[in-house]
Backbone:
């Protein structure tokens, strides 16, 4: 299947940004270098981008750039976790995590008055899994366990968390992206979630709220 790409020329026209802005954002790592895809064309060589990702990223940058420095934008859009800590009260009051999800996390890892970014990320991912409704609360503990035990090894990398069920038994694991994983006919991928995108979404949400 042909990738859904957008040319640099079309991108600049659609988003009303300049060539200089685009490459300044690239130098600052606000736009990943791997999104700049060189392809042969009848004029020689042309630069393309993954359409959905680049249009979404440029729109977010435009929304934030007037009151956020380029260095801060680079931190927001990186896969690196933040060192921020937020009180349990603020997490609930500002609607970052539902109270029921915090209770489940508290039963798993003891309830606290202040949570680190990583802990909030784990709860965010747990909330995503539970909101879809394809896993039970008991199964959700394996999601927390795999994040708690293994995420630090993947921190800062493009990765996803996958939940698979086979003959009624659920297993959960983290995998680097891109990947190619094959399962037998008895296994069903119940849900997979891009952790890197969850990190960025959470950082954006925290910035908006605080």
Residues:
């Amino acid at each position: 299947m042909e990738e859904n790409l957008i040319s640099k020329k079309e991108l600049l026209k659609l988003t009303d940004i300049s060539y200089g802005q685009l490459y300044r954002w690239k130098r600052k790592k606000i736009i990943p270098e791997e999104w700049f895809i060189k392809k042969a064309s009848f004029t020689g060589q042309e630069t393309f981008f993954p359409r959905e990702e680049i249009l979404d990223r440029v729109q977010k940058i435009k929304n934030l750039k007037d009151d956020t420095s380029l260095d801060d934008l680079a931190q927001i859009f990186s896969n690196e976790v933040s060192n921020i800590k937020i009180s349990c009260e603020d997490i609930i009051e500002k609607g970052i995590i539902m109270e029921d999800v915090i209770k489940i996390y508290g039963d798993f890892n003891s309830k606290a008055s202040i949570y680190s970014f990583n802990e909030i990320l784990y709860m965010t991912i747990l909330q995503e899994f539970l909101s879809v409704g394809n896993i039970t609360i008991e199964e959700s503990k394996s999601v927390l366990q795999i994040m708690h035990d293994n995420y630090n090894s993947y921190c800062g990398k493009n990765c996803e968390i996958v939940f698979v069920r086979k003959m009624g038994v659920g297993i959960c694991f983290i995998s680097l992206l891109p990947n190619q994983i094959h399962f037998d006919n008895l296994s069903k991928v119940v849900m997979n979630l891009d952790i890197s995108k969850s990190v960025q979404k959470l950082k954006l949400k925290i910035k908006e709220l605080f």
About this structure: Strands lie at 5-7, 37-41, 44-50, 85-87, 114-116, 159-166, 169-176, 187-194.
